[in-house]
Design a protein that fits this description.
Blueprint (H helix, E strand, L loop, with lengths): L1 E5 L12 E5 L9 E10 L4 H4 L17 E11 L9 E7 L3 E5 L4 E2 L16 H14 L6 E5 L4 H12 L3 E6 L2 H10 L4 E4 L5 H8 L4 E5 L4 H8 L2 E9 L17 H7 L2 E4 L9 H13 L7 E5 L4 H7 L8 E5 L1
Parallel strand pairs: 8-9, 8-11, 9-10, 11-12, 12-13, 14-15
Antiparallel strand pairs: 1-2, 3-4, 3-6, 3-15, 4-5, 5-7
Helix pairs in contact: 2-3, 2-8
The structure holds NADPH dihydro-nicotinamide-adenine-dinucleotide phosphate.
NADPH dihydro-nicotinamide-adenine-dinucleotide phosphate binds next to helix 2 and helix 3.
Organism: Exiguobacterium oxidotolerans
EC number: 1.-.-.-
Protein name: Putative oxidoreductase
């Protein structure tokens, strides 16, 4: 069996050399433990922050230790009363082909409800992020204009659709014509902007003639600057992510104080993990919307454990529409 460890702390953009494959020998599970076979590995932008040796909201990965992230796995041997052979579980686990863990570190998922990969996407961390960030902080009202960046990604594509369900007008910003076409034609976004081929400020003026009421921030940088220049009074900005700066050494802004004063807008960072007590509510609501066909989700799947690093690097090239996953 194999695992992937952090080989070096990347300067700027990570590369394949950031990661190293190692062979592992697994012990048989002890009492309370299970042997798992990995089915899906989630690659997520926040993991880039954990590769730096810097204090943040989550602990840095240790050099030479396995990279960890969201994983869906199958129980192939159990010495726990809580799980039996064949059960499917989700957890924050090492990037490995197989592993032995305490049963209480994973959560069983109901494979009859939805494809199990959704536990890492629309019905998992990224769906919850969209749900809480948009509804709790953005609080979109019918007829308001909601702008979302990284709109065709895992979080952004769900944000835009929930905003539509709530009766808002939705404008999505993404990095290719395939993505903007998908947002408009498949997901029903009202307006779309390709930030790689259009001037974002001009495009926003056209797409948001009555200004911006909610900006769901996923990318920061110049895109964030352009949207923040067009806020309506009392606009809300859930600050979910700032991926355009994750590979930069310097914090590249924005400087927003006077803009926030003029618009009386509220900009608030959040972490999905803070909503743990309400995960059940979100999972039920998201599940209902998915079953009713009101909420669509896409997955971009890389095949094979060999391709986990390339999948992760792909997040920074925009190689995904919807949730980026690796299937083993
Ligand atoms: P995505 O599926 O959206 O993948 C990342 C996307 O970001 C890419 O597909 C790419 O799309 C876009 N992107 C990459 N580099 C840039 C850039 N320089 N400028 C603009 N866009 C870029 O990932 P997630 O949905 O998982 O995450 C989206 C954001 O939400 C991230 O910032 C992430 O850190 C954050 N997040 C925050 C959480 C929280 O609790 N606060 C929890 C989960 C995620 P394109 O082709 O459009 O460029």
């Amino acid at each position: 069996e194999q695992q992937i460890v952090l080989a070096e702390r990347p300067e700027g953009r990570p590369t394949r050399e950031t990661f190293r494959y190692e062979s592992i020998e697994l012990n048989a599970p002890d009492a309370g433990q299970v042997l798992l076979e990995t089915l899906y590995i989630s690659v997520d932008p926040y993991m880039r922050g954990r590769m730096n040796d810097a204090r943040s909201y989550s602990q840095p990965f240790e050099l030479g230790a396995p990279v960890q992230g969201g994983v869906v796995a199958k129980v192939i041997e159990s010495r726990s009363d809580a799980l039996k052979e064949g059960d499917i579980v989700v957890g924050m686990l090492d990037w490995a082909t197989k592993l032995v863990v305490d049963a209480k570190t994973v959560r069983k998922i109901d494979a009859s409800l939805a494809p199990v990969s959704t536990a890492l996407g629309v019905l998992g961390m990224t769906g919850m992020t969209a749900y809480f960030g948009l509804l709790d902080i953005g609080n979109p009202q019918p007829g308001e204009t909601v702008v979302v960046s990284a709109a065709a990604g895992a979080v952004g594509s769900i944000v835009g659709q929930i905003a539509k369900i709530k009766g808002a007008r939705v404008v999505g910003i993404a990095g290719s014509d395939e993505k903007t076409t998908y947002l408009k034609e498949e997901l029903g976004f009202d307006e779309v902007i390709n930030y790689k081929t259009e001037d974002v400020g001009e495009a926003l003026d056209r797409a948001c003639p009555s200004g911006v009421d909610v900006y769901f921030e996923n990318v920061g940088g110049e895109i964030g600057d352009a949207v923040i220049d067009r806020l309506n009074p009392f606009a809300r900005i859930p600050v979910c992510g700032a991926i355009s700066g994750y590979n930069e050494k310097e914090n590249i802004g924005p400087r927003v104080q006077s803009k926030l004063i003029a618009s009386r807008a509220r900009m608030q960072g959040f972490l999905v993990g803070d909503y743990g007590k309400r995960f059940k509510e979100a999972a039920e609501q998201l599940g209902e919307w998915v079953s009713a066909g009101e909420l669509k989700y896409e997955e971009t799947i890389f095949e094979g454990f060999d391709n986990v690093p390339d999948a992760f690097l792909g997040l920074f090239d925009g190689s995904n529409t919807g949730k980026l996953l690796v299937k083993l």
